[in-house]
Design goal:
Layout (H helix, E strand, L loop, with lengths): L5 H53 L2 H15 L2 E6 L2 E6 L20 E6 L3 E6 L8 E7 L5 E8 L1 H51 L14 H63 L8 H27 L9 E4 H18 L3 E5 L5 E4 L1 H18 L5 E7 L2 E7 L5 H4 L23 H11 L3 E6 L5 E7 L1
């Protein structure tokens, strides 16, 4: 089934509702107007007759005729008043050439359509025997039966007014129809315009278009809907962005793991092959390998190096995980002094001086074990590669923790690979100096996992290297 668009649907519903209201209101006018108008006229006639009788009773003989004349003139009526032996008569209704009935008689030849009496005044709606306009007949007996008032009032004015209103009903119905069409068009446009805007923008959002935004200012539930759509889209874009970053991060981690495993397999293969060859030759008593007392300690030394390397490989694999430990508040000055203490003895034996300048308390919030590993690996790296008699400086510059050591600066072509696993830039930086190429890789992995920025550059005067951590 074909879907009808919102604008014509809203227009049809609105126009139909307004036409129902117009039709019902005109029908009520057509039905109720004659009845209501007739009721009001009858009540007013009754009040005037009652007031006339009261005034006649209070008035002297000379003034009663003027009261009768005023009543007849107001109602354009025939009236006969008989009171205290005097008769007052005025025939304005007959002057029009229409004599509905003999008001001096008892109206026996007149058909009464409706009659109302309260015991004193009787008002009858009577049919004109001559077939013309119906009339009101009123009769009132004075107190003490001193006389009576009889009057006949034509309903011609009522019927003229009703006929006029009924005659203009088609015109008003047509005008109301035109107004209903215009109003329905304006209302439908006002209602559907913001909804169409939301529909168009959500199509752009469906395609994840950048800058898609529902700008609706109706100050009602439609504006609330637009705001909710905008917030939902912003949340969706943010979630997609976070997922893309997470996917990119996972891809980088997978690449690092692959590189680590590839490099680890190569690095582990060398000592394992060497130990296996020496043990096999010793078992076969081949040549110099008959001297077990020389080569067994070498095998032990290689196995110890292998054990250290395996431990650091495991540390490197754990460095990517932040779910192992919760964040804690750490006093950095105290932690650096604590970690630096054992390295001072190693440095002293090599003629290297370690200077720390973190006297003031500096609090950070990170996993303690991971921060310890970073500081320990950086200290180990600086002690291993600082020139004999050189100096290692550790200090704070604002919110930056800086490690500087006196050494031959690493060339820029080597520096971009320095954080790769098992990478050693030159012959002077091999495992015989105590390093296996995993220290800076672990530092890089931990800092990236904790989203901490850092830099590793040569010092300005080429006197050494500087590692700067922005906490």
């Amino acid at each position: 089934m074909k879907k009808r668009k919102l604008f014509p649907k809203t227009f049809l519903y609105t126009f139909s509702l307004m036409m129902v209201i117009v039709a019902v209101s005109h029908l009520l006018i057509y039905i109720l107007l004659p009845t209501v108008y007739n009721y009001r006229q009858r009540n007013e006639l009754e009040s005037d007759i009652e007031r006339l009788c009261e005034d006649i009773e209070d008035m002297e003989d000379s003034g009663r005729l003027s009261l009768v004349t005023q009543f007849a003139g107001k109602w354009n009526a025939d009236i006969v008043v008989k009171y205290d032996g005097y008769t007052y008569e005025m025939n304005l209704l007959n002057a029009g050439g229409s004599e509905p009935a003999d008001i001096h008689g008892n109206m026996e030849n007149v058909d009464v359509i409706a009659e109302k009496t309260d015991g004193r005044i009787k008002i009858s709606l009577s049919q004109n025997p001559k077939g013309k306009t119906d009339f009101f007949y009123g009769e009132r007996i004075f107190s003490g039966e001193k006389g009576y008032v009889k009057t006949t009032v034509s309903r011609q004015q009522i019927e003229d007014a009703v006929s006029t209103v009924i005659m203009i009903l088609p015109v008003t119905a047509f005008v109301c129809t035109i107004v209903s069409i215009v109003f329905a068009l304006l209302y439908s446009h006002m209602i559907t315009k913001p909804i169409k805007q939301i529909s168009d923008v959500t199509k752009q959002m469906q395609e994840l278009s950048s800058g898609a935004y529902c700008e609706v200012h109706t100050h009602d539930e439609i504006e609330t809907l637009a705001d909710n759509v905008n917030r939902m889209y912003d949340s969706l874009i943010k979630t997609i962005h976070d997922l893309e970053q997470e996917i990119h991060k996972v891809e980088e981690m997978e690449v690092q793991k692959t590189n680590l495993l590839r490099s680890a397999s190569h690095e582990l293969k060398t000592p394992v092959t060497a130990v296996n060859a020496m043990l096999e030759n010793m078992i076969l008593d081949v040549g110099k390998y008959k001297d077990h007392s020389v080569y067994l300690p070498k095998c032990k030394m290689l196995m110890e190096q292998l054990s250290v390397m395996i431990k650091e490989i495991l540390d490197a694999s754990k460095a990517e995980r932040t779910d192992m430990e919760d964040d804690e508040e750490i006093d950095l000055s105290e932690l650096v002094e604590q970690i630096a203490e054992p390295y001072r003895m190693i440095a002293k034996s090599k003629g290297i001086c370690i200077k720390t300048d973190i006297s003031k308390q500096f609090m950070i919030t990170y996993p303690v074990s991971m921060i310890k590993k970073v500081i320990s690996n950086l200290l180990s790296n600086t002690v291993s590669y600082t020139s004999k008699g050189g100096t290692i400086r550790i200090y704070l510059d604002g919110e930056k923790l800086i490690f500087e050591n006196d050494c031959v600066p690493i060339p820029s072509e080597y520096l971009k690979h320095i954080f790769e696993p098992f990478y050693r830039p030159d012959d002077s930086r091999d495992r015989n100096t105590g390093g296996n190429g995993l220290g800076l890789y672990i530092v890089d992995t931990i800092l990236k996992t904790l989203q901490i920025s850092y830099s590793f550059t040569a010092m300005e005067n080429d006197s050494g290297m500087r590692f700067m951590i922005e906490l």
